[in-house]
Structure formats: C-alpha cells, structure tokens
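Table 4 source record.
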Amino acid sequence: MLPETEEEIEQSEEAPEVQPEEEIAKEEVVEEKIVLPGDLIGTSEEFTPKNGTFVDKGNIYAATTGIVKINARERSISVTPVTNVPPQLQVGDIVIGQVTDIKESVALVEIASIKGRGEREIVNAEQAAIHVSNIKDAYVKELYSEFSPFDIVKARVIDLRNMRLTTVNKELGVMKAYCSNCRTVLKKENNKLKCPKCNRVETRKLSSDYGTGII
C-alpha cells in the first residue's frame, strides 16, 4: 500500500471532529425550577436577556411564571412559560402581574398570568389598572403607600372593557415588593415591610400570601 500523499495528510489533519449530540447538549441547559414574575435570575454581566425577562439596574428578572433556560453558547437567559395554550381573560379571574407605573388615582399593571389557567402570553391582555377605589375596604390617602413600580401583585379582574382589577380581599394585593431605595426584596414584619439591606420601612396593600410564593 502506497504511503499517503502530502495533500491527503493535510486533509486528514483538517478534518474536524464532529460530536453533534455533545455540542447540542452544551448549547442549552434547562434549570429545573419554576420562577415567578419578579424573581432575580441573573445579571446583564452574565447573560443576554431574552424572552420572558426584564432588566433593572443590571439585574435580570423573570417577567412571567415559567422555567428558566440558559443558552450556554449564546450566553443568554430566558423564561419559558409552563404551557403552550394561550389563556383568555374573563371577569373573576385571579391574575398575577407587575406594577409598571403609578398615576394620581390608578396603579398600572402588566398582567403575566392567570391563576390555574396557564402561564403563557394571554390572548386578550392589555395593560390593566387598579383604581384607588378598588384597592381595599378602607380609605386610601396616597396610592404610593399601597403600590410601587416593580411590585408583583395578585388581583381579580372586574372589568374587561376597561381592563380594571381589584385587590379588595385579604388574599389579593402585593406578593413581592422591592425597596424603593436599593431594589432589595422587602421582608414582611407585622403589617409593614422592611429592607434587610438598608433598613428602609415601607407599606403596601399586602396579599396574605406575601413572600410565600403561593399563587
């Protein structure tokens, strides 16, 4: 048998090792944990935020309830909803959402999921509002003492035409709140919230499920 020519040796050396199964396995890693809207899942230094996330002050948070996915090749992170069936809002539904802004008489909320009816993007969801009269069974002097931007709230749908929500119930209200000063998650102490980092004390219209992760 004749020895390999110089060209054949070069071609042999250049032939890449293909290990498709191993490469595919490295591309995407699924974190076996379900996160709620507002949960911290990484930083912008570590990952590029993708679907189902939002960024605040360099931290990446879950924007929906679902499973965290990390693409190691792209160095990206996303949250995949736990179901593929798009739910439709109905009056009476209990929803989970995030406060996006506070106006004079309403708190604006971006709805993320419907309790017991799936967690992917909702078909007929628009930005919803909680009017000051629908916060609790008591006089509300200042809206800022009940809600703050980035709060995760549990509310009930009372009007689809105007996308109105209510938190008038002990189960309804803020489920997770962030310090207005340093964005640390606030800890519940009696009926108030305290920041474990800067000791700031704040108030909210709290859900009885605050801090439990129970939807």
